[in-house]
Amino acid sequence: MGRCPKCQAWGSLIEQAAPVTPAKKVAAGAPSTPARPIAEVALDTARARPSGVDELDRVLGGGLVPGAVVLLAGEPGVGKSTLLLEVAAKAAVARTVLYVTGEESAGQVRLRAERTGALHDRLYLAAESDLSAILGHVDQLRPELLIVDSVQTMTSPEVDGTPGGVTQTRAVTVALTALAKERGLPVLLVGHVTKDGTIAGPRVLEHLVDVVLAFEGDKHSTLRMVRGVKNRFGPADEVGCFELRDEGIVGLPDPSGLFLARFGATQASVVPGTAVTVVMDGRRPLLAEVQALVASSHMPTPRRAVSGLDSSRVAMLLAILERRGGIRLQDSEVYTATVGGMKVTEPAADLALAMAVASAKNDVALPPDLIVLGELGLAGEVRRVSGLRRRLTEAARLGFTHALIPPDSDAGTSGMRITEVADVTQVLTRIKR
After folding, report:
1. CA distances (Å), origin 283, targets 60, 62, 233, 408
2. Nearest residue to 356 (alpha-carbon basis) of 422, 302, 306, 417
3. Residue 343's Cα: distance from chain center in Å?
4. Is 276 within 8 Å of 289 (Cβ atoms)?
């Protein structure tokens, strides 16, 4: 501006810098508790207590820690409420449990509890969606375990916003986390997921809680898995296996039988096109069977169908078999799948899948006591895999006596007959006609 807006004089304005406002200093306050040497901090309040469900305790790192906030997220209908009702019934044997539901009525939860045998005198049920009402129940009952199903249905009267929105979800989680830390009360929260499988709500939700668990499962299978995504009290890569039944959900300490179609089979009953491998799901070795079916095709572009496997990985393995192994597949339809609804994505199953395809193509069945481990490179070489000793120990425990493994591997003393194979050509010579 060249003209003053008050006196209308020209050339009377002078440019000056704005005054700098000094930053406000925070005054020192009295600490709530004095600082102590770390070696003198008591551990009694940080020790995990078993929840009563062994597979869940495996993922949690031993059990529920007093004051811990656990977020269990999963798709609709996967069994989150059923699992937590089972946890509530087991925990009610030794302590008072408050189960708060905002998605169902009290009668609906009672019907499920009768069906699954989860009725107990120390298990209290409240159908509430208001945060202040939940805090009132906690003050009245003084529970030792609080379950909230779900956090997206709860609302705080002090915060504006719709239920399930970012503001409400954050406020409810912050309040429940503060309650858990103040009273040493373990809190289990049920969380919804979006269409792409991520936890609904703000990302800060996962940072506020102590443990984040992902509940996974196929609607066409009874198998359910709880995976640790975040855990401040234990390993974050553990996996718990469950089976959803009519009478409730049951933990599976040894789920390998679900993933093997030829468990305990003989050579006469084994059909071509199957191979068994061991995959690591977190820290847990699981036996998995991969199957392949090769059929002639008169179409210009033969079909490739994949179930439970990585489609791009399967396409790469088929190219390796045709180019390095000399198996003609360009005029054949190839179908590959896993057994029991298991998803296999790690490279350690490459060699087993390659042998299954070659077995189906040559119509030669593999021995029923054979385990196959190894990753395939584009040059056809067999590469080493991690955790080989644990994989072989698990296979030997289930009755397998012979293993094909990569060269220069530290197999240890598993009691199995070990055969090292360097490339895919050396492997395929075993299943020629």
Report:
1. 13, 15, 16, 23
2. 306
3. 12
4. yes
* pLDDT tens readout for residues 379-431: 999 999 998 999 999 899 888 999 999 998 877 766 889 999 999 988 887 66
- Supply φ then ψ for residue 147, to 5 degrees: -120, 125
Higher pLDDT: 194 or 90? It is 90
DSSP symbol at 356: H
Largest CA distance in the chain: 108
Query: Can you list the positions of beta strands (E) in 63-171?
Result: 69-74, 97-101, 123-127, 145-149
Here the tokens at position 353 are 């899948």
User: How far apart are alpha carbons 362 and 384 in whole angstroms?
Assistant: 26
Distance from the Cα of residue 14 to its chain's centroid = 66
Element (H, E) at 391: helix 388-397
> Mind listing the pLDDT tens digit for each residue in 120-141?
999 999 999 999 999 999 999 9
Least confident of 197-201, 204-208, 292-296, 392-396: 197-201
Residue type, 228: G
Do 190 and 154 touch, CB atoms closer than 8 A? Answer: no
Best CA proximity match to 169, nearest among 143, 189, 139: 189
Amino acid at 3: R
- Quick one: tokens of 397? 């425990």
pLDDT digits (tens, 9 = 90+) for 286-337: 899 999 999 998 888 899 999 999 999 999 999 999 999 889 998 899 999 9
Q: What is the dihedral of CA 37, 38, 44, 48, to 10 degrees?
A: 170
Q: How many other CB atoms are found less than 10 A from the CB of residue 52?
A: 18
Q: How far apart are CA 336 and CA 82, in angstroms?
A: 33
Measured in whole angstroms, the distance separating CA 399 from the mean position of its chain's CA atoms is 28
- Supply φ then ψ for residue 390, to 5 degrees: -65, -35
Nearest to 201 by CA among 179, 172, 221, 228: 172
